[in-house]
């Protein structure tokens, strides 16, 4: 009887633990609402590498073919880049202020979206969503 109960209990325990675990996709334990600095530190500990996105926005390249620098680094994106978040791709919006960050590990990509404004040591964006999409 004891073996019978144990054989039924183990799958139940495994399912309960699986359903209670934070959402993951090979990128470690990411949780919505975490400050980007904490998320970044955890990803680096888990072997993810920040991917520096050096690109010129197509619209600006068409307007001025002489553009040789990242014009998508404006506002919070520029501030975060200057603070060492070289993987920031862009920030858009005023109220919601969504920023995009890129990481890579073993050929896999991880793209994070944050919400909120960067205010130096007084505040920073928090994790909103993530995908395994690669940068354009």
Low-pLDDT ranges:
4-26, 56-60
Number of strands: 5
The N- to C-terminal Cα distance equals 58 Å
Average of the residue pLDDT scores: 74
What radius of gyration results from the CA coordinates?
20 Å
What's the helical proportion of residues?
A: 25-40%
β-sheet strand percentage: 15-25%
The computed structural class is: alpha+beta
Globally, the shape reads globular
Describe this structure in words.
The chain has 136 residues and is α+β, with helices and mostly antiparallel strands. It has helices at 2-20, 36-45, 58-63, 76-82; strands spanning 49-50, 88-92, 98-105, 108-115, 126-131. The chain is built from four helices and five strands; from the N terminus they run H-H-E-H-H-E-E-E-E. Strands 1, 2, 3, 4 and 5 form a five-stranded antiparallel β-sheet that branches.
Topology:
Elements: H1 2-20, H2 36-45, E1 49-50, H3 58-63, H4 76-82, E2 88-92, E3 98-105, E4 108-115, E5 126-131
Short description:
With 136 residues, the chain is an alpha+beta fold.
């Amino acid at each position: 009887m004891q073996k019978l109960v144990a054989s039924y209990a183990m799958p139940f325990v495994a399912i309960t633990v699986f359903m209670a675990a934070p959402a993951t996709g090979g990128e470690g334990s990411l949780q919505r609402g975490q400050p980007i600095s904490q998320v970044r530190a955890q990803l680096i500990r888990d072997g993810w590498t920040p991917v520096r996105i050096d690109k010129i926005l197509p619209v600006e390249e068409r307007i001025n073919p002489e553009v040789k620098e990242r014009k998508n680094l404006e506002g919070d994106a520029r501030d975060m880049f200057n603070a060492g978040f070289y993987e920031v791709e862009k920030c858009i919006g005023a109220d919601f202020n969504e920023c995009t960050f890129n990481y890579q590990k073993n050929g896999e990509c991880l793209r994070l979206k944050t919400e909120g404004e960067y205010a130096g040591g007084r505040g920073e964006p928090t994790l909103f969503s993530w995908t395994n999409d690669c940068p354009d």
